[in-house]
Amino acid sequence: MAQAVVIGAGPAGLMAAEELAAAGHDVLVAEAKPSVARKFLMAGKSGLNLTKDEPFETLMQSYGPAADWLAPMIAEFDADGVQDWARDLGQELFTGSTGRVFPPVMKASTLLRAWLARLDGAGVQIRTRWRWLGWDADALQFDTPDGMQRVTPDVTVLALGGSSWARLGSDGQWAQVLRNSGVALAPFAPANSALSVDWSPHMRSHFGAALKSVRWTAGDLHSRGEAAISASGLEGGGLYSLTPALRDGTPLFVDLVPDLDKEALQSRLAAKKPKTTLTQWLKKSLRLPPQKVALFHEMVKAAAVPQVEWGAALKHLPIRHEGLRPMDEAISTAGGVTHAALDDGLMLTALPGVFCAGEMLDWEAPTGGYLLTACMATGRWAGRSAADWLRGG
After folding, report:
1. How many structural domains comprise the chain?
2. Starting from the edge strand earliest in sequence, which strands make up the sheet with 131-136, in order?
């Protein structure tokens, strides 16, 4: 019988397992998929952004309403903590110009192999293709390749992910199990999501093109990041941080010339020769790339912006869209186990001895290292709290 069971082998679950093993407990990690940390590996394919190297107070601003209750956990495993942990696994790191921290290999597989080797050395057992079905009295029930398995641990840590990228393991099916046990949950919602746009045919030649040097605005939220034009809409880090506002239907605008103030823009527009078309002027005077010019024409037409206002629209172009892409396509999700359902150690008050960690908790953050930092910090906190609980602390 395992003394501690961790369900979910993503970064939060593996971190919890590491802490429980370090405290001297036998640990079994159960993972529904055929291999561990699949979303972690997928994220690493575009460059494993471990954390954001910035002061703690600045770091916490990216966690929105959840910052207050996440603060103690991230304070003990902040950007410096994440980097120290990775280096202790023998990984070299570098910090980019924006403060984002990466391993030089720019992928997750090397770090994951080192991590799994350390867990194996600590005696942590990992079982894949073990899908958790809930409880039968005090026993955890799993559907496994060897049939139904029942395990009755002394403590359980749930690190089951959110409800996006179901093919990688985060399908949210655990929510009904916890709801039936009296755990308060907030509805899932997409976070770090792309937008759906019904493009006209003339935009097809620009699919895949990046919109750089732009400033996006949705209500009180702003972003200077880039986005790409795709067949289904717009996607990229420049938009992801605006998801909380866009989710609520807040209008989206883009400044196509953020480095040019209104007065300078009007001066250039006034100097435009009468025979010069607007498209020619946009390309030659403002030196806008084709994708920006195409987006401008697409959106002034979609929003029926009067021609006399086209100059001003370059600084405040309304983006007409059909809302966020489906939740399963989102990089992460909001919603899940509410803060009110947990004690200070991330134990479910309705289920003593059961702790939660990672994206299944009700918080969200933009991409850029914030997601991974909080997943590992909450996993570490839950693992340590579970070890304290086993000691009767």
Report:
1. 2
2. 131-136, 139-144, 147-151
Q: Residue 5 and residue 266: Cα distance in Å, rounded? A: 65
Domain edge (last residue) among 318, 345, 377: 318
pLDDT of residue 53: 96
Tokens 């050395």 correspond to: 121
Q: Which residues, in sequence order, are bridge partners of residue 135?
A: 140
Task: Write down the pLDDT at residue 191.
Answer: 97
pLDDT digits (tens, 9 = 90+) for 26-49: 999 999 999 999 999 998 777 899
Instruction: Spell out the residues 6+ positions from residue 80 whose beta carbon is closer than 8 angstroms to its own.
Output: none
How far is it, in rounded angstroms, from Cα 80 to Cα 78?
5
CATH of the domain at 31: 3.50.50.60
Which sign, positive or negative, has the C-alpha torsion 167, 171, 173, 174?
A: positive
Q: Identify the domain boundary among 318, 347, 380.
A: 318
pTM of the model: 0.94
Contact 336, 360 (CB under 8 A): yes
Give the pLDDT score at 2: 62
Q: Which of 4, 16, 341, 7 is nearest to 181 (CA)?
A: 341
Q: How far apart are CA 253 and CA 270, in angstroms?
A: 24
- What's the rounded Cα separation, in Å, for the pair 102 and 206? 30
Give yes or no: residues 199 and 252 share one domain.
Answer: yes
164 and 306 inside one domain: no
Domain range for 263: 195-318
Q: 332 forms bridges with which residues in the sheet? A: 191
63 and 201: one domain? no
Task: Choose among 318, 324, 315: nearest CA to 251.
Answer: 318
pLDDT in the model for residue 72: 98
Q: Which residues of the chain carry a pLDDT beneath 70? A: 1-2, 393
Radius of gyration of the chain from its Cα atoms, rounded to whole angstroms: 24
Residues 6+ apart with CB under 8 A from 246: 193, 195, 218, 239, 252, 323, 324
